[in-house]
Amino acid sequence: MHGESDDSRLVGAVADREDDAVEAALRPKSLAEFIGQHRVREQLDLVLKAARQREATADHILLSGAPGLGKTTLAMIVASEMAAPIRITSGPAIQHAGDLAAILSSLQEGEVLFLDEIHRMSRPAEEMLYMAMEDFRVDVIVGKGPGATAIPLELPPFTLVGATTRAGLLPPPLRDRFGFTAHMDFYESGDLEQVVHRSAGLLDVAVDPAGAAEIAGRSRGTPRIANRLLRRVRDYAQVRADGAVTSDIAAKALDVYEVDARGLDRLDRAVLSALLKLFGGGPVGLGTLSVAVGEERETVEEVAEPFLVREGLLARTPRGRIATPAAWTHLGLVPPQAQANGVQQAMFDE
């Protein structure tokens, strides 16, 4: 029993590393290869070209948007376009000012520091970052109590690329120190089809246009999800078909993996099903809804809800979560007339 558990953990870790390696291989290496985000790409191209012409480091860059839209990829592209090394860390990993000071003091001139989930950095480290970004200097505190002294430490010019999924949590003093800020939008189906075709070429998978469209349509406007679904469809086509991905094969494969035609997965449908069948369409509190589907409150709020709201299947109101008429239709149910009127009233109240 013990050995089986250890083996399963080992196999899982190997699988995770393989997935990470495949994901890294699919990342574009330059702005020219990057698909979608046309406005952001054009603006960023100007920023980087101007910096190269001046033979200076690029301004600090802030990228915001939902997970999976390419913030990490763009940070790596910034380093590649500037022919500079990149250092990668995250906000949760920097809990003390000393953690940040150690990273900053070891940077090379022109290096790109990518700080993911920057809004989760500790406040002392955040305050140290203000001076580092503006003056390329930090004050290192030596000693404790009345005898403590601040020793100024000069830093080489560097480019900070911050990424956040919740830009509203960034304090204005930090946000204002970025020379270029960009918000990344969800992808249109046409751009996602290009992503699928590009990734299929790198994975040596034959995908016809209809198959790419089927995968793109179920990818929730997110390239990371499109790539993940492509790999699962590839597995299905390899095992149960001739290896080629058509619309029919893609649909059958994604049905096996419980991703429906609109992109809803098991959790999304569980939330909607509980909301409709157990609570009559709402309104119901988030905590109660989370218990009903057997998931953590944060999981429902941060993973399922944003997509359901964006798809017009669920609404947040002061009285709780409610299902829209489209949710009833999607699950093949007929909303009570009283419920339909209640939805309209709750949305009006909001």
UniProtKB/TrEMBL annotation:
InterPro entries: AAA+_ATPase, AAA_lid_4, DNA_helicase_Holl-junc_RuvB, P-loop_NTPase, RuvB-like_N, RuvB_wg_C, WH-like_DNA-bd_sf, WH_DNA-bd_sf. Gene3D superfamilies: 1.10.8.60, P-loop containing nucleotide triphosphate hydrolases, Winged helix-like DNA-binding domain superfamily/Winged helix DNA-binding domain. DNA binds at residues 297, 316, 321. It is an enzyme of class 3 (hydrolase). It is found in: Cytoplasm. It catalyses: ATP + H2O = ADP + phosphate + H(+). Its main location: cytoplasm. Has 3 domains, the large (RuvB-L) and small ATPase (RuvB-S) domains and the C-terminal head (RuvB-H) domain. The head domain binds DNA, while the ATPase domains jointly bind ATP, ADP or are empty depending on the state of the subunit in the translocation cycle. During a single DNA translocation step the structure of each domain remains the same, but their relative positions change. Homohexamer. Forms an RuvA(8)-RuvB(12)-Holliday junction (HJ) complex. HJ DNA is sandwiched between 2 RuvA tetramers; dsDNA enters through RuvA and exits via RuvB. An RuvB hexamer assembles on each DNA strand where it exits the tetramer. Each RuvB hexamer is contacted by two RuvA subunits (via domain III) on 2 adjacent RuvB subunits; this complex drives branch migration. In the full resolvosome a probable DNA-RuvA(4)-RuvB(12)-RuvC(2) complex forms which resolves the HJ. This is Holliday junction branch migration complex subunit RuvB. The gene is ruvB.
